[in-house]
C-alpha cells in the first residue's frame, strides 16, 4: 500500500474516533419546550446525559437568580422540582453537565401565570326599573394582567370589553375590574349578567384560559299608581260603616299598610290588609286615612279624608261587670237628654236579634230633657263573643224632618270564660326510676287563654312557684323530687287547679337484717328478727326462713318477726327480701339456738331433800322386808328381838 494512502487511512481513523467520542457524550432536557405553569402548581425539569458514566450536574438561571426549587441527582439524571410554583420561578433555567474535560449545557424557559378564581359580580344596589345601577366585574389575583381581557354581557349582548395592555415593572398578582353603569328596564327582568375573563397565556397558544360568572338579574319596580276606593262615601253619619280598598302596582307586589294621621302628625297603624272596614263610626273617626304600598325598593302613598257628621248624643251602653260565660250580667241602655220622650222607643239588639224593646207612652206635662233607659239581664255564652250589642233609640218627630229620627250605640261583646278542664299529661309516667327525666304538660281552657303557673305543694301547705311555661321538665330526677305538683290555669275571671303526685323510686338499698338481742340465744329466750330499708317511699319487706330446699314466709309486722320461746328447731337461716317496681335486695342471717345444760349439773333444794329421803327410806324398807321374812319363819316378828339377834 502506498505511503500516502496509509497516512490518509490513519488520519481518517483518528477523525472517526473523535467523532464517535463527541457523539457518545450528549445532554437532553425534559420537557423539550418551555413550561407554562400556574402559581401553586408543581413542576419538574429533568436533565439527563448519555456517554458519561459519572457526570456532574449543576442548575442555574440565566440571570443567576435563586432557583426557588430542590435539585435531586441520580446517576446520569438530575431533576429540579419547584413545588409550589411562585413568581420567583419565572426564569430561563440552564442545566450544566461536566464529564471529565467536557462540558455541555441545555436550557428551558419557565413562564408563570395566575388565574385562580372565577370573576365576581357586584351591584351598587338593588336593580330598580328606571334607576341607574353600577355593575362591577372583578377578576382577582391575575398575572400577567397585560394579557387579561374582561368582557361584561347582559343577556347575549356585550356591554363592555376591556384589555389591560400596560406592563407592570414588578411581578405581582393583581385584581382587575370593569365597571358599567346602566339603567334597568322592564325587558331586563329575567336576563342574566355574564362576566367573562380571558387570560392569553401564550401568544401562540390558540386555547387561552377562560373563566366566567353568571348572575341572574332580579329587577324590582317601586310601588306606583296607588289607588283608594271608598264605599259608600267619604261623608258619613255616626253609626255608619265604611269600607276602603287600596291597590298599588310594583314588583314584587307591594304590601299594603293602612294608617290614620293623628293630630300630632304621627301615623297610627290600623291594618296590613288591602281592605280596611270601620264600623259604627263616631265623630272622632273623622280625619285623614293613608294607604301606603311598600316593597323592597320603595313606597307610594295615597290619602283620603273621611268626615263623620256628629249628632247631639247617642245612647250609652253600660255593663254591670265583666262578661263571663254562664254568669248573669245586666246591660243598661241609656238615652240621655230626650225631649219629648213620649213615644220614645229603645231597642236592645244582639246582632240582628232584638233582645228587648220598650216604648215610653207618657204624657209630657213639662218641658225638660230627661234620660230614659232600658235594662236587661242575660247569661252570656261563648257564642256571643264577636257579636255586636246595639242600643237603638227611635224618636218619631214627623214635623221635624231635619232632625235625625234615630240614634244608636254599639259594643262588640267579648265573653270571658273562667279557666276549666285543666289537665295534666305526664311523660313517661308519674312513677319514675331515679335519674330519669319527666315532662309534665298542663293545658287549661278559657277566654282569654289562661296563663299556666306550675308550683310544688310544700309540707306546710304553701305553694312554691316553679315555672310559667306550659311544660315543666325535670331532668335527672332524684327521690327528693317526689311530691305533689300543682298546675293553675289563671285568667282575669278565675283560676282552675289540677294536681299530680310524682313518685321517684329507687331500687331497694340500705337494707338491714338484725336479730335482737343476739344471733346466738338459748332455748326459751325471746328473739326479734327485724328487717329495715332506707328507701323512701317504703318498699315491700318479706321475712322468710329457709326450710329444706325452699323458704317459709313468716308473718311479720312492719318487717319484724318475734320468737317468744326459742326452740332448737327455730335455729337456721333467716332471709329478708326488700323489693319494689325498680328492683330488689336480699339480706340473710343465721340464728343459733343453744339447749339447756345436762341434769348432772342441775342442782336445786327440792332435789336435795328428795335425795336424802330416798337414802333413808330404801334401807328402812330393806330392814322391814328382812324382819318380815324372819317373822314368817318364827310365826312372829319383834323389832327388839331383831336388834338383839344382831348383837
Gyration radius over CA: 59 Å
CATH superfamily of the largest domain: Immunoglobulins
Low-pLDDT residue intervals, each spanning 5 or more residues: 1-22, 398-402, 598-612, 627-647
Number of domains: 7
Gross CATH architecture of the largest domain: Sandwich
Biggest sheet strand order reads: 18-24-23-20-21
Q: Please give the CATH class of the largest domain.
A: Mainly Beta
Q: Please state roughly what percent of the residues sit in beta strands, choosing from under 5%, 5-15%, 15-25%, 25-35%, 35-45% or over 45%.
A: over 45%
Explain the overall architecture.
By secondary structure, the chain is mainly beta. The protein has seven domains: 3-113, Immunoglobulins (Immunoglobulin-like); 120-217, Immunoglobulins (Immunoglobulin-like, Sandwich), CATH 2.60.40.10; 221-309, Immunoglobulin-like (Sandwich), CATH 2.60.40; 316-412, Sandwich (Immunoglobulin-like), CATH 2.60.40.10; 417-505, Immunoglobulins (Immunoglobulin-like, Sandwich), CATH 2.60.40.10; 512-594, Immunoglobulins (Immunoglobulin-like, Sandwich); 605-646, no CATH class. Mean pLDDT is 83; it is low at 1-22, 398-402, 598-612 and 627-647.
